[in-house]
Amino acid sequence: MKAFLSFLLLLFSCLFVRAQEEELLQQVLAANAPQTLQASFTMIRHSPMLTENLMSEGEVFLQAPDKICWEVQRPFSRRTVLNGTEASPHRFRMPAAKDFILSSRRTDGVVRLELTPRRKDLQRMFAKIEVNVHPGTLLVQEVRLVGNDGDWTTIRFDHIRTDAAIPQERFNP
Fold it and tell me: Which residues contact 58 (CB under 8 A, 6 or more apart)?
């Protein structure tokens, strides 16, 4: 009987933790679904084949549902625009939450999400995606894309502004 009660206590604890985790995930998803987003970024790329990490900096502009302008400013200038209107094999589409196995935890005041791809095309690109979220605003601060080959890319976002007007020219190719 004591083992059964211990099992029930463990089961209810796991269900309670899972419910809290699900609520946290829903809050993070809601906070990160603005109509527009602007941020500066620092991107660090690591590969076991390179002797040192590569770093770049720039700005990103998003407009729901499918417009993105990614501007690298350093160490070189490069602009990539996906505006959702042109037929392209690279049309921007954010994967949905259902495309990942999601887990979350709060550590040292930071909310950490881990996304493990479910879809085969995403599994070929990533072993996992780690996301650090600001504990107050629940906005994404950092994303680490972990490849299957030991490569990883970390993108740190700063000066994040949501739901501010973005000139439409920003999304012209």
Answer: 40, 41, 43, 70, 71, 72, 73, 74
